Amino acid sequence: MKEVMRIIKILVACSAISAVNAFAAEQPRCQQQTVENIKMEMCLLPGAAFQHDMYTLKADKTLVFALVDDYSEKVEMEHVIPEGQTIELPLSKQNMSPIKITGGCIPESKEGAEIARVCNFYWGKLQVVKNARFEFN
Fold first, then answer.
1. In angstroms, what is the C-alpha Rg of the chain?
2. Is residue 4 part of a domain?
3. Rounded-to-integer distance, Cα 128 and Cα 121, Å
4. Cβ-proximal residues to 88 (8 Å cutoff; 6+ apart), any chain
5. Is-above-0.85 flag for pTM?
6. How far, rounded to the nearest angstrom, does the alpha carbon of residue 7 sit from its chain's CA centroid?
7. For residues 118 and 132, what is the distance between their CA atoms, to the nearest angstrom?
8. Does any domain span residue 7?
């Protein structure tokens, strides 16, 4: 039974990796920054030619969001922290409720073509992504 469970876990992991790789035309391009001892990772997952790109944000390897490029320019997400004992991401513990994640990945253009996106995000009062620039070839 343990062997069957191990095989199932391997198959699930392989299918998840395949799903990401099927979407991305290239390997993800990621930039890391540290805020309040939390490792933030902002990634661009390039889509195939003439397909949409995805942007992801992780805090200490926990996925916070994944956004398609069309909806990454102006982002505002809100979380109301419930009363009592809760499990919260460390950056949500800023003595504010609701806590918001705001910002975006703003396109830069040259001669009518998008050449890059620059991402900036705040988590409450803290800037967690600062000028993460992703250039397009």
1. 18
2. no
3. 6
4. 81
5. no
6. 29
7. 5
8. no
